[in-house]
């Protein structure tokens, strides 16, 4: 079995970001970069599948600048077998990402693609679904449990608004990882040493022949307004009145 796992380089969730003067991007000076947390969960799940079944190959894929090598090396240190970095100087929107990934899937022919359910920088939560549509593959999003069957199928428990839903999908398929799927491991020192010798292939995005023209444009970024202090009300009737007349939420 071959499992393809996507890895995105994102700012550390603890980083305080500042908006650039153009109002359409943020300043990257002194920003710590990490693997997108949901992608880290996807890597862990692929490694667990490999360890259970034996013989599986885990291939990491990232799209971005050369600096994304750092996050791929971290994934390799966790236990992945090899990595592919698609070099792109421009940030790609979800549809462009899906088209690039489709080109890679067509070449790699994996049995399973595991992705984080969303990236914490833009929170689009769309690339996985778009990739499934482009490939014509079944999909199971927001997975909190994955069980592979011996009949080239997967049983996936996914988190939905009403609780949990269990799907059976034939492979190959797209699965996106949710927060409660697992707890990612730390890279060990031997793993870090081995990662230096593992293959990392670089492919210019133009070589894949994918249409990466942007369909989404960032018009403006702004920081959220500062929260104001709350106040106490004397009765339920007063609370309803305030919510209706002042907050205008009912």
Structure notes:
This protein is α/β, with parallel strands linked by helices and 250 residues long. It has helices spanning 37-53, 69-78, 94-108, 127-135, 189-195, 236-245; strands spanning 2-6, 9-11, 33-35, 57-64, 82-87, 112-116, 139-149, 153-160, 163-170, 173-177, 200-204. It has one domain: HUPs (Rossmann fold). It is built from six helices and eleven strands. Strands 9-8-7-10-6-1-4-5-11 form a nine-stranded mixed beta sheet, sandwiched between helices. It has a two-stranded antiparallel ribbon with strand order 2-3. Helix 2 packs across helix 5 and helix 3 (94-108) packs across helix 4 (127-135). The N and C termini lie far apart (53 Å).
Count of DSSP helices?
A: 6
Largest sheet: 9 strands, mixed
**Could you give me the name of the CATH homologous superfamily?**
HUPs
Task: Say what the CATH topology is.
Answer: Rossmann fold
Number of strands: 11
N-to-C SSE string, H for helix and E for strand: EEEHEHEHEHEEEEHEH
Mean pLDDT: 93
- The CATH class designation is Alpha Beta
Strand order within the widest beta sheet = 9-8-7-10-6-1-4-5-11
Q: Portion of residues in helices?
A: 25-40%
Radius of gyration: 21 Å
**Secondary-structure-derived class:** alpha/beta
Number of domains: 1
Tell me the span between the first and last alpha carbons.
Answer: 53 Å
Q: Hey, roughly how much beta strand do the residues contain?
A: 25-35%
Q: What is the global morphology?
A: globular
Tell me what the CATH architecture is: 3-Layer(aba) Sandwich
Q: Regions with pLDDT < 50 over 5+ consecutive residues?
A: none
């Amino acid at each position: 079995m071959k499992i393809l796992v996507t890895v995105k380089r994102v700012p550390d969730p603890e980083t305080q970001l500042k908006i650039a003067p153009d109002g359409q991007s943020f300043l990257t000076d002194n920003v710590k970069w990490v693997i997108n947390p949901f992608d880290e969960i996807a890597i862990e799940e692929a490694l667990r599948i490999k360890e259970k079944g034996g013989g599986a190959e885990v291939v990491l894929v990232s799209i971005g600048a050369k600096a994304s090598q750092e996050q791929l090396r971290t994934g390799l240190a966790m236990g992945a077998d090899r990595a592919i970095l698609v070099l792109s100087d421009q940030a790609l929107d979800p549809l462009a990402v899906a088209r690039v990934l489709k080109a890679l899937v067509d070449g790699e022919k994996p049995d399973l693609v595991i992705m984080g359910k969303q990236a914490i920088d833009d929170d689009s939560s769309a690339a996985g679904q778009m990739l499934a549509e482009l490939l014509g593959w079944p999909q199971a999003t927001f997975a909190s449990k994955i069980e592979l069957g011996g009949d080239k199928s997967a049983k996936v428990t996914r988190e939905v608004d009403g609780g949990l839903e269990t799907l059976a999908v034939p492979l190959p398929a797209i699965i996106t990882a949710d927060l409660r799927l697992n707890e990612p491991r730390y890279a060990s020192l031997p793993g870090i040493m081995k990662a230096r010798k593992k293959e990392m292939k670089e492919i210019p995005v133009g070589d894949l022949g994918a249409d990466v023209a942007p369909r989404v444009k960032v018009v403006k970024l702004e920081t959220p307004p500062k929260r104001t202090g709350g106040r106490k009300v004397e009765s339920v009737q007063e609370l309803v009145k305030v919510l209706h007349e002042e907050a205008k939420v009912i």
